[in-house]
Amino acid sequence: MRTLMPDNGMAAEEVLAALSALKHKDCDWKNGRSPAYAFNPVDEIYELGRAAFLEYFSENALGMHRAFPSVKQLETEVIDMALGLFNAPPKAVGFTTTGGTESIIQAVQACRDLARATRKTSARRSNIVAAESVHPAFDKAGRLMDIDVRRLAVGADFRADPAALRAAIDDDTIMVVGSAPCFPYGVVDPIAEIAAIARERDVWMHVDACVGGYIAPFARMLGRPVPAFDFAIDGVCSLSADLHKFGLCPKPASTVFYRSAEQARFHPFEFSGWPNGRFYTTTIVGTRPAGGVAAAWAVFRHLGVTGYKRIAEDLLTHVDAYRAGIAAIPGLKVVGDPHLSIVAFGSHEIDIFRVAEVMAEKGWLPGLLQKPKAIHRMVSRLHVPVMDEYLSDLRAAVQRVRQSTPAASTLKAIY
Ligand SMILES: Cc1ncc(COP(=O)(O)O)c(C=O)c1O
User: Fold this and answer.
1) Which of 276, 301, 326 is the last residue in one of the domains?
2) Last residue of some domain: 253, 284, 301?
3) pLDDT digit string (tens) for 203-252?
4) Which of 49, 102, 133, 342 would bridge with 97, disulfide CB 3.0–4.6 Å?
5) Which of 34, 39, 101 has most ligand 1 atoms within 8 Å of CB, for mutation?
6) Which atom of ligand 1 is nearest to the CA of 252?
């Protein structure tokens, strides 16, 4: 039945109480029950991000070029700090956006328009060449811009297969993509090899570091074996990295970067044939919260390199323990060899989706992979305090599935 707007409004306290009551149906993310979607425990970083966001609650990042120069300054400083992290050359350019999907769509559009402007374009559809593990945001971009996305099988190590990418590139290819890491398997693609192919074939290379961008640099500083993935590699033309994931900043916030101003040339949108005059934006959306930009600035300034390194060290040490805990349960095996904090595990002996069902009964919302069948988690600081509880429930769930009569699970992997 349709909900009608009430004739008379409710008191603010009642409305807030009703909101809070509604949440009881939701996944208990604060206690680590969600495999993804939320990242930050309610701690000092969370409170700072929230306070900075609220400080800029009414300001509109759309108006940063005229009404709110402070927002422009905050964006510039966030971008500068990030460019330093990603070894970007002095002429590199970047923008904040509302999320990974928007960063990716913008990069594809900047690439497509530059290809149109500088190459002989054919009447045929352009294409993007990528491993099947890249995020669906590329397909969303393809749908919006009539570009085909050629998704190719990953190698035995679940990383993009450079030879397969090379073979799929043709005269209509405008972009080749590598993930750092990809969401399904948590592995960083062989970015340097893919970039060499992109250079050789004169194709734009985008690195999707949406999920890894703000943890991988710190993991590398800590000496962890995370492959190089950024502008230090010649041939990387653009890179997306989400502030609202391991950047530990409130949603909505992401960043997208280009090696040069020439490559960023078609990123902004400009239109002057409007009664109101020139309209200029650097995002697909128009109005967007300045809070996301201010909060990112605050969290960057607060944590600094030392703070992010400390958090990365702590989280990744727990991820090591998590992987060891999984490996210690007979019948379970981690998928591939994840580089950072996304870990999936499956089984050759039992139906892992049955295990996910049992875990769901205990309140753990399952993240699932369909290829191969696995339980998937983007391990964040929210999972750390409940890791032992999770592993103990997992051990019991595996045992229960082993002991019960074999029955196929009806679960379907959905993100
Ligand atoms: C590798 C990767 N790229 C892009 C995205 C899209 O990000 P968003 O959900 O912020 O649009 C995600 C989200 O998880 C991701 O993991």
Assistant:
1) 301
2) 301
3) 999 999 999 999 999 999 999 999 999 999 999 999 999 999 999 999 99
4) 102
5) 101
6) 10
